[in-house]
Amino acid sequence: MDKKMKKFNILIVGTGGQGQITLLQILSATALSEGYDIKTSELHGLSQRGGSVEVHIRFGKKIFSPLIPQGQADLIIGLEMQECLKACYYANPKTNFLINKHIVPIPLEKILPEKEILNNLKKVSKNIFLIPAAEICQEKLGTSVVAGVYLISLSSFKNLIPIKPTSLFEAIKKIIPEKYLELNLKTFNLASNSEAVK
Amino acid sequence: MEEILLNKSGGKIILLGNETIVRGALEAGVNFVSTYPGTPASEIGDTFFKIAKKVGVYFEYSTNEKVALEAGIGASFSGLKTLVAMKNFGLNVCLDSLFPLTYTGTKGPMVIVVADDPSCYSSAQSEENSRGLVLATHIPTLEPSDPQECKDFTKLAFQISEKFKIPVMIRTTTRVAHQKMPVKLGKITFPGNVVGKFVKDPKKFVTLPPRVLEMKKELLTKIEKIKEFSEKSKTNFVDGKTSRPIGIITSGISYLYVREALKELNLNLPVLKLGFFYPLPEEKIKDFIKGLKKVLIVEELEPYLEKEVERLAKEANCKLKVVGKQLIPEVGELKPEIVTLALAKFTNAKYSILNTKYQIPFPKRFPQLCLGCPYWLVISAIKKAVDLKKVIFGGEIGCYMLFGNSPINLQDYLSCMGSSVGIAHGIKKATGQKIITFVGDSSFFHAGIPALINTVFNKSNPLIIILENRTTAMTGHQPHPGAPVIPNGIKIEEIVRACGVKNLKAIDPINQKEFIATIKEFLNKKETSVIIVQRPCIWIKK
After folding, report:
1. Which CATH architecture has domain B375-534?
2. Which of B499, B503, B383 is nearest to B445 (CA)?
3. Could you say which of 3.40.50.970, 3.30.70.20, 3.30.870.10, 2.60.40.10 is the CATH number of the domain covering B3-232?
4. Residue A49's pLDDT band (boundaries 50, 70, 90)?
5. B85 and which of A54, B43, B44, B396 could share a cystine (Cβ 3.0–4.6 Å)?
6. To probe the interface with A, which of B257, B355, B364 has the most A CB atoms within 10 Å?
7. Does the pLDDT value for residue A1 go beyond 70?
8. Is the pLDDT confidence value at A74 over 60?
């Protein structure tokens, strides 16, 4: 948390359909329960059809803009690796990158090698945490759809985000529909046992 | 119970700008809501669609924005509290009905929500600024900055409409409509299903000359009175003070970026934040600029406020330097860093963005047709049926505008809803070249039918392919007249036949052989031909 500005900026990037808006709802409900002011921004409509999708979540004492200013993201959660390059617009040397080790190919483009992506990201920030979230969730829970929930849970357990895991747990219960709740709570518990970030 | 209906006065819940417009309308006691879906306004209709029955509000997805507005006019003339919502282009569609509405005025209070989309995130045809049409139609207009204001301004708009008997517009933009924050709730009274009553009053409702000119005078008088209201309204306020003779005037989302920028630059400058765009509180603006040497106008898109301030400065402070588009771009949405940079230049403050030294290239990812989308079958059939170089392809608004992307490349022009057919007719008449034009089912109902009739009536022979996927897919799968919630919608095939089209075939595109043969056959016909491609969007529930 930026002490002087008293606010925390989270950017979540990925491709359409990776559940960014659900993650936004969970994180903002968590921040509200901890007494923060919140502003968020999301896009709907055509951009969701497999295009790049980024959502902004800002919380703190008093927040005005729903958009994170350039270079001021505290945490960037990348649900897809290539999209993290685009997110560098919002990063600075102190930004933490929490990245799902997962690539969604772009039609007619060659897939960027993982190493090239990471080397480029390292030019901006050294704080890069590459997590095989999709793989872990697939292996332990039978589906990778909860990779985003795994990453935000991890960010709370590993203090990459100034909100308590217990608040996050309650927010998941509040936001996720009954039908999928058990899966999501299991994901939360799975993240609590992770050794991925120390 | 949906959270948006939580009746806990003073409680706070996180809501989207569009949802707080719904909440504000409910708190104001709305009875009648109509809309045509369009991003970034869609969630207003979609939320009412979910809750209308529960709360005793009449709601409809209308065929297009013009009939949505007309439905609202009828309800207002019958005394009901009415809300009509649309995106910016919808305002163009309903403009013909909006002009006379400000002349007649309303009976039941009426609020029209219009959502602009700077940067065209979900808008293909232009970066339209509805403010120009506000001035042309004389519709009083409020511009909220955040979801709390969306709710408060919607309630206020109903009050203004009730008091002055005129429709009131709420103009939002994408970053207001799709912004979330904790919003303080008021009370909902749930008026229940209210039945209106139309009381004959030709003097009020009939715009026939010479009465229409009297009505115009009455409208202008009304606007003068609303201007007095605007002068006193707390939605136009000044915050911040300074000893320096410089200030900022702003409104809508730009206000939030200004506050962000002032904090970033550690500046304290007076800011005049305008809730009213029309009519402007001119005296308040004059008071604000009186003692200043220069003022920065922070607004997205065209410089409407800037021109007004320049005009007012001639009366109040002719030496005032008015700075606006000189520092603030006219194309694309604003962002906090753009406003901060402009403000730094304006005040000679030092500001550098932390990360401009990194130039990280990234691959661009464009929206795609979904895997399994029936339109892929259309693309493959066309590519097999015709010589792509010799045929012109007409496009318009819907998922099928992605036909313009590589590697599909089946789009030689693109304009507004329903236009692909009208333009195809013109090209045919002008050139005689072969042309295939696409129109979606919701688009066909929206504005395609008059164009089809014109094509038949004035005798040209494009091949029109109607893509019937049984939903309004791109904006979030809303129902339309051919695919309403209750089955047995209006049949497109019957409409096309009734329009006098002889060469007509409805085909499931999975039957590629038949489809390809029909394209080849119809493309050589001397009269208008239509293929209705019938296969539902993969996302609709069967």
Report:
1. 3-Layer(aba) Sandwich (3.40)
2. B499
3. 3.40.50.970
4. confident
5. B44
6. B355
7. no
8. yes
Tokens of A9: 């900026």
Q: What is the pLDDT of residue A5?
A: 46
Using a CB-CB cut-off of 8 Å, the residues of chain B touching A30 are: none
At A120-155, the pLDDT tens digits run 999 999 999 999 999 999 999 999 999 999 999 999
CB pairs under 8 A between A and B: 155
Helix (H) or strand (E) holding A118: helix A114-124
Residue A36, both tokens: 């923060």
Rounded to whole angstroms, the Cα distance separating A44 from A88 reads: 22
> If contacts are CB pairs under 8 Å, which of residues 23-62 in chain A contact chain B?
24-25, 28-29, 32, 37-52
What pTM, to 2 d.p., does this model score? 0.96
Chain A residues whose CB is inside 8 A of the B474 CB are 45-46, 49
Phi-psi map region of B341: left, alpha, beta (phi>0 left; psi -120 to 50 alpha)? alpha
Question: How is residue B498 written in tokens?
Answer: 């009734």
Q: How far is it, in rounded angstroms, from Cα B432 to Cα B287?
A: 63
| Helix residue spans in B297-374 (DSSP H) | 304-316, 336-347
Interface pTM, i.e. ipTM: 0.95
Indicate the DSSP class of residue B365.
Answer: -
Helices A20-33 & A165-175 angle (0-180, nearest 10): 120
In angstroms and rounded to an integer, the radius of gyration of the C-alpha atoms of chain A is 16
CB contact under 8 A, B402 and A28: no
Nearest to A44 among B40, B354, B360 (CB): B40
Chain A residues in contact with B43 by the CB 8 A cut-off are: 44
Q: Which residues of B touch A50 (CB under 8 A)?
A: 365, 367-368, 370
3-state secondary structure of A54: strand
Q: Which domains does chain A have, with CATH numbers?
A: 7-192 (3.40.920.10)
Residue B243 in 3-state DSSP?
coil
Domain boundaries of chain B, sorted by first residue: 3-232, 237-347, 375-534
